[in-house]
Every structure is written in structure tokens, then in C-alpha cells.
């Protein structure tokens, strides 16, 4: 276990604090570093609102025009393939074409919001990864429905699906970003948040590109498309094969459980998977293989705990990865070599975030590598 604590996570951390939390009181939490809210890359700070009165009048006139144009656009194009929100139509109407620099500013804003000492283990990053994944993982290859394109989790009943419990926290946090950058679509915003969350937790670079559009209530996906944590390998394959993933990609993706935790008031399950829930590592696989996992005796849903410290957890669905021969071979591979895990995770997560988006919508033929705050500060 000590070996796991001594690997990659340690050099990046500024502070180790312990927290008193049911089920996790015996270990120290590793927190990511604090960031500033300015844009370190450009040195820019948000504009001073007091200098904006004349711009505001222009903006009001502009918004009026936008609403008219947007409404007309909507009226003529509200079907599955051409749905566009008013804001997106406005973007076209005002000739505002965001550049990579604009998206980097959005990334920076998201990154500045991740660190939050009052929340969970000190970071919103894990719940943002879960938002990006649940927004994309509804994809059905056969019917070409679901996926990240329309950001339908904004609407009931999808927002209320059991699997999405607690994601209102992440969606509300992203509203702060949306206010500052109203031109970005929700699908782009949520997926970029997943990218920023992984990269800022010292994870791999996730190639990403914009182009998703906001859909409508009629586009919401049916319940049951996301995995049920109480089930095993057959269910996992049914769910992920439906999206177009293979065994190797499935195992790589679930390695995201290196970060974050389960919340009794969201999924019913409780506790983190690793000792460093805010640093992206391959520890999920190492712990799966190295620890002895036993069923936890408690009043909640069936979950496993590590026999040694009883402070970590595995879901039945996580444990299925070592009960299945094919899955287990990849668990071993990723436990042995974090670089291989990072490389495979990056490809699979990038693919996940693009599910359901027609290629004609991408603004660039090749995805971009967004810069981390550290990379921009180093310049
Ligand atoms: C068989 C597949 C999967 C199952 C059954 C599953 C299930 C769960 C459950 C039950 C939770 C706890 C939610 C809560 O109580 O807050 C959770 C959290 C999480 N999941 Fe998964 N998951 C799966 C795959 C994935 C994938 C593919 C990703 C990303 C690539 C992912 C990323 C996360 C993250 C980061 C959290 C922590 C969220 C937080 O700390 O708030 N999961 N997952």
C-alpha cells in the first residue's frame, strides 16, 4: 500500500490533510494545488463591469436582434439534425467565431473553479468527470441517439434519472462558466470540463474539439442507458458495447475511479476507491489486484471494502473487472504500467466525449490539446 502512496501522486501535492468522514477517517487525503481565478496564460483578468455601460446598450440591441434571428432559426430548424439554440444562432448572426484561444479561456475558467476546500476531498474535478461521462455515455450506436451532442441532461426526466443523482452539483458549477462564456454549447462546456478535470489532476492529455450543439427536451434519452453498479460483466459489456467500446476500452475508462468517491445520498454507495482521490493515477487497478477485497457489512447496498484499512471501496461492477479473464488481462496491464493506462485512457475518453456528434459539426478536423494551467504558467 505504501508503494501506492509513494508513487506519482506525492510530488504534485502541496498539502496533506486528514478528514473525519465515515468510512474514510483513517487516511490522509491528497489535495490538488490551489489555482488563481485569473487567466494565467494570457495574464488577462475578467473585464471590469463598471466600464461596460455603452457596451451594455449595444449588447441589449444585439440581444434583441439575436432573439429574433435565433427564434426564426429555431422555427425553421427544430428537428433532430439541425437543432440549434438561440445563443448558437446568435453566434452565427453576430459573426462570432470562437477561436482555440477562446476555448482555452473557458478551460482556464473551469480549472480555476476545481479547487474547493469545503467540497468532498477538496476538488470538484471528479464530479465534473462524471458529468462529462454521463452526458456522453447515453450513446446508442445502433439508433445513433444519445451521446454528448445535445446535452439533454439539462432536461427532466434525464436530469432526474437515478444514475445522474448528484450531478446537479456539477451542472450548477458549470453555470458560472456559461454566464461568462454564453456562446459555448452545454455539450462542449461539459465535455471540456471533463478534459480540464483530468488534466488538472495530473492525468493524461485528452484531445478535445468543439462542435456540439444544444438540443431540446424531445431529445432526452431513455433511462437505463448508464451502467448499474450492482451488476457484473455481462451488464457492463451490454452497456459499453452498445456505445461501441471493446473490453480494453471498457477497462481503461473505468480506471477513472482512481478519483472521486461514492456518496450515500447520490448512489447509495459510500467511500473512495483510492487513497489519492484528487490525483489521476493507475491506483484503481493496483488496489484491485493487490488488496484483499471483502463484502462490507453494513445497511447500504452490496459493496466491497479493503480488508486491511476498511477505508476504500469497490463496486460490484468494479470487482467484475478482476472476475472476468479478458477484463483482468487489461487490469494487469494498466496496474503494471501507468503510461500505457494514460495513453489508452486518453484515447478511450476522447472517443467517449465525441459519441453522437455528427462529424460535419466539428470545427476542426483534428482534436486539440488544451494546455493545463501549469503549462501556461511555465511559459
Ligand atoms: C461499469 C461502469 C461504471 C459504473 C457502474 C459506475 C458507477 C459509479 C458510481 C455508483 C459512482 C458513485 C456516484 C456517487 O455516489 O456520487 C461513480 C462515481 C464516479 N464515476 Fe463511475 N461508474 C462507471 C464507469 C465510469 C466511467 C467510464 C467513468 C469515467 C470515464 C467514471 C467516472 C466516475 C467518477 C470520476 C466518479 C466520482 C464522482 C464524484 O466523486 O463525485 N465512471 N461511478
Automatic annotation (TrEMBL):
InterPro entries linked to this entry: Ccp1-like, Haem_peroxidase, Haem_peroxidase_sf, Peroxidase_I, Peroxidases_AS, Peroxidases_heam-ligand_BS
SUPFAM superfamilies (UniProt xref): Heme-dependent peroxidases
Recorded superkingdom: Eukaryota
Catalytic activity field: 2 Fe(II)-[cytochrome c] + H2O2 + 2 H(+) = 2 Fe(III)-[cytochrome c] + 2 H2O
Membrane-spanning parts: 57-76
Pfam families xref list: peroxidase
A Gene Ontology term for the protein's cellular component: mitochondrial matrix
Annotated compartments: Mitochondrion intermembrane space; Mitochondrion matrix
Record key words, sorted: Heme, Iron, Membrane, Metal-binding, Mitochondrion, Oxidoreductase, Peroxidase, Transit peptide, Transmembrane, Transmembrane helix
One Gene Ontology term of the molecular function aspect: heme binding
Function: Destroys radicals which are normally produced within the cells and which are toxic to biological systems.
Alphabetized PANTHER family for the sequence: CYTOCHROME C PEROXIDASE, MITOCHONDRIAL, THYLAKOID LUMENAL 29 KDA PROTEIN, CHLOROPLASTIC-RELATED
Name of this protein: Peroxidase
Amino acid at each position: 500500500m505504501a508503494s501506492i502512496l509513494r508513487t506519482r501522486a506525492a510530488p504534485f501535492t502541496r498539502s496533506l490533510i486528514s478528514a473525519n468522514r465515515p468510512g474514510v477517517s483513517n487516511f490522509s487525503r491528497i489535495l490538488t494545488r490551489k489555482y488563481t481565478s485569473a487567466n494565467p496564460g494570457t495574464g488577462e483578468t475578467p473585464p471590469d463591469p463598471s466600464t461596460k455601460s455603452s457596451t451594455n446598450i449595444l449588447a441589449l440591441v444585439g440581444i434583441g436582434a439575436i432573439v429574433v434571428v435565433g427564434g426564426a432559426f429555431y422555427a425553421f430548424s427544430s428537428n433532430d439534425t439541425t437543432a440549434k439554440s438561440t445563443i448558437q444562432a446568435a453566434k452565427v448572426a453576430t459573426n462570432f467565431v470562437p477561436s482555440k484561444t477562446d476555448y482555452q479561456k473557458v478551460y482556464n475558467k473551469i480549472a480555476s473553479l476545481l479547487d474547493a476546500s469545503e467540497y468532498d476531498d477538496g476538488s470538484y474535478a471528479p464530479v465534473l468527470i462524471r458529468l462529462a461521462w454521463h452526458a456522453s455515455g447515453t450513446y446508442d450506436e445502433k439508433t445513433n441517439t444519445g451521446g454528448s451532442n445535445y446535452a439533454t441532461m439539462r432536461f427532466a426526466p434525464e436530469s432526474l434519472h437515478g444514475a445522474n443523482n448528484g450531478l446537479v452539483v456539477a451542472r450548477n458549477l458549470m453555470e458560472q462558466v456559461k454566464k461568462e462564456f454564453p456562446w459555448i454549447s452545454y455539450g462542449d462546456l461539459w465535455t471540456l470540463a471533463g478534459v480540464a478535470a483530468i488534466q488538472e489532476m495530473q492525468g493524461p492529455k485528452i484531445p478535445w474539439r468543439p462542435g456540439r450543439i444544444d438540443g431540446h427536451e424531445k431529445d432526452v434519452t431513455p433511462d437505463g442507458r448508464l451502467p448499474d453498479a450492482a451488476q457484473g460483466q455481462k451488464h457492463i459489456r451490454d452497456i459499453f458495447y452498445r456505445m461501441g467500446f471493446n473490453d480494453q476500452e471498457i477497462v481503461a475508462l473505468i480506471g477513472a475511479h482512481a478519483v472521486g468517491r461514492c456518496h450515500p445520498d447520490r448512489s447509495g454507495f459510500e467511500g473512495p476507491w483510492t487513497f489519492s482521490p484528487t490525483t489521476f493515477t493507475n491506483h484503481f487497478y493496483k488496489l484491485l489486484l493487490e488488496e484483499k477485497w471483502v463484502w462490507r457489512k453494513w445497511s447500504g447496498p452490496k459493496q466491497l471494502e479493503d480488508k486491511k484499512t476498511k477505508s476504500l471501496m469497490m463496486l460490484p461492477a468494479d470487482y467484475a473487472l478482476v472476475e472476468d479473464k479478458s477484463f483482468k488481462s487489461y487490469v494487469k496491464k494498466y496496474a503494471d504500467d501507468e503510461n500505457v493506462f494514460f495513453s489508452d485512457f486518453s484515447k478511450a475518453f476522447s472517443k467517449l466525449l465525441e459519441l453522437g456528434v455528427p462529424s460535419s459539426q466539428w470545427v476542426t478536423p483534428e482534436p486539440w490539446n488544451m494546455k493545463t494551467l501549469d503549462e501556461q504558467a511555465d511559459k
